[in-house]
Structure formats: structure tokens, C-alpha cells
Write a structure and sequence with these properties.
188 residues; mainly alpha; Glutaredoxin; two-stranded antiparallel ribbon; 8 helices; globular
Length: 188
């Protein structure tokens, strides 16, 4: 539920497609806004709307205005992060990237409430939904998600989106914030 991450989604997918044979990709969630970090009022809606317009203008990604019609909403990235971690643990990295794209488009294009487990299960194969829900509610999912939050901070990924790669000397190189495809590939 990071609008700049949604803006970056096509860039990341293009990058992954082009460099799939050269790099191993891992999705680490950072926990942008968790558990009540943002009060839902007209001022917050105006700031968010302005940010979304800026992201749309910069990246070309589309956004719906449906979210702003809600009187009450807890803008909490915690459940979405936990859902991505759940998919990654149960079905692997590629599945987690695909799932992230689905929940991002659902939230930003359709105005879906991706803080609810029932909604988060929507993009899971019906035969796998029970396994998803059980793992999502588990202590292990909680632990792995918190580990991701810590890992992101330890890698310097304190701005979203961030791309971290390990260079030939084993050093982490962190590119922070939205970047176009040609900007992100310049030092590869």
C-alpha cells in the first residue's frame, strides 16, 4: 500500500523479466504504515490524493478515487505485508511478486480494502485459501513479517520503493525511491 511502490511495479517487473537469468530476486516488505499510523480525516485524504496525483504524473500508473469516498478507513499496510510474506513462504518468490501486483492493482485501481483477510484471500486459488488463512494467522507469519521489516531497515531500505543488490565485492547497494528503468539499470 505504498503508492510509489505501485508506481514502480511496472519498472520492477520489466527489470525482473530482463535480468531473471542474472539475478535472484527477493521481495522484502518494509511496513510503511502499520496499525493506526495515519488518522483518516479530510487532511489525510488531501495529502494522500496529492501524493497519488504526483505518482500518477511521474510514473503513468493509474489510481482510483474510490478510497477517498470512505468515511472510515484504517490505512494499515500490516495485513498486506503479512499476506505477501505468507504467499512467499507458501509458494515462493515469483508467487509473492505476482501477488503483490494483484493486491496493489486491487487497492489502487479498484479501491478494495486490502486490510481484510477475506479480501486478501480473493487472489489466492480457492483450493489454497485455507492454507493461506492458516499461515497468515500464524505466529510464524508474524515473525517473518517483522523480520522483513528489520531486514529492510538493516539494508538501508528506509524509503519505498528501494532496490538492494549485492555487488561483486559482496557489498549491499541500495537504490532508494522511485526510479525509471534506465536509471535503475545504469550501474548494472
Amino acid at each position: 500500500m505504498c503508492s510509489w511502490c505501485w508506481g514502480f511495479h511496472p519498472v520492477m517487473e520489466r527489470f525482473r523479466a530482463k535480468y531473471r537469468d542474472r539475478y535472484e530476486f527477493s521481495l522484502v516488505v518494509g511496513g510503511l504504515r502499520t496499525k493506526g499510523a495515519m488518522q483518516w480525516d479530510e487532511s489525510a485524504k488531501a495529502r494522500l490524493r496529492a501524493t497519488w496525483r504526483q505518482v500518477a504524473e511521474t510514473t503513468g500508473q493509474l489510481f482510483t478515487e474510490k478510497l477517498f469516498e470512505r468515511d472510515n478507513f484504517e490505512y494499515d499496510t500490516y495485513p498486506a505485508c503479512k499476506a505477501v510474506v505468507t504467499v512467499r513462504e507458501l509458494w515462493g518468490e515469483d508467487a509473492s511478486f505476482a501477488y503483490l501486483g494483484k493486491i496493489q492493482s486491487s487497492f489502487y485501481l479498484d479501491g478494495e480494502d486490502i486490510t481484510a483477510l477475506q479480501t486478501l484471500k480473493t487472489w489466492i486459488d480457492p483450493e489454497k485459501q485455507e492454507a493461506f488463512a492458516v499461515f497468515f494467522e500464524s505466529e510464524r507469519a508474524e515473525l517473518l513479517m517483522r523480520h522483513d521489516f528489520s531486514k529492510a531497515r538493516s539494508m538501508g531500505a528506509n524509503v519505498f520503493p528501494s532496490v538492494v543488490r549485492i555487488d561483486s565485492d559482496g557489498h549491499m547497494v541500495c537504490k532508494k525511491g522511485f526510479q525509471r528503468f534506465d536509471e535503475i539499470t545504469i550501474d548494472i
